[in-house]
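haha ok so turns out i had the wrong file open the whole time. this is the CORRECT one, sorry everyone. sequence first:
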Amino acid sequence: MIHRFERLNYRQVDSLRRDKTAIFIPISPLEEHGPHLPVGVDAFNAEYFAFSTAEKLQTLKPEWDIVIHPLLPVGTQVFKFIGSINLRQRVVRDLVSGVGSAFAIYGFKYIIVFSFHGGPRHIVALEEACSRVSKKYDARMISITGAIAEKFLSGGFIADFEKEMGIEFTDQEKRLLSEDIHAGWWETSMMLKIQPECVQAGYKGLEPMLVPYHQLGRKSSWSKGKGLGYFGAPHKASVEFSEASIRILDRIGLDIICRHLDGDDVSKEVTSRFYGMYIFRTEFKRILGLAVIIILLIMAFLIFGRFGW
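then structure:
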């Protein structure tokens, strides 16, 4: 059975079987998404996939209860642009750790985070939170969408789309998809599907803005392209494309979740490569600063010691 957490009383929560209950936590920031999409794109997507996944999972595992926590409309490493709300990475990590811990401390082991924001530090903050809760409470908390989002942003699902839609993309379309990073082809398609009233009619007239993912920074929304806050090809958007993406993501996500609930170790599949790059870790700047201080102290000791000071 699917439950909305905010509608349960504490006795109903306590009655849930700890070994047959999955907790879903959708989280994504409010961030500008071009002149044609609402600031809630990432949040809408996170909430949509949390609920749609719950419905499909219920048919695959009817003996399980699924509790969906209210959307957490927060995130980090968003584009610095009017309409974007950015929180520090540590705040996001601690928030998700806190929410996960609130369930894990009472014996709920299976906790799954859904997010559709592609900022590396945001992805890593969620992965760090899951790792913390899992280790502290012997839980099984994962962020399901980080590694998938990373692959998606690099055009890793182009072949899947061709197979799913029964078409073959041109070389130009493949390039558009490989650099479809923000408010472009896919996100505009998703909004046409789930929030059509929020899509401005002029999206068809927006020309492609292509900037490689690794060249983007927080100020890129206004400093690159024409400063319109999107990177990709929104004019290519269609409901058909979004529906194909939903089928692809459902297939991948549900397979991972089902195996996770069965007790399999899926950590390698859900952990992004960003997690292994310490520059994206929450404590990186603090550790770097401490290392610099230690090096300076050692240098000072060697220099002053040499002259007998």
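The longest strand covers residues 21-26.
again sry for the mixup
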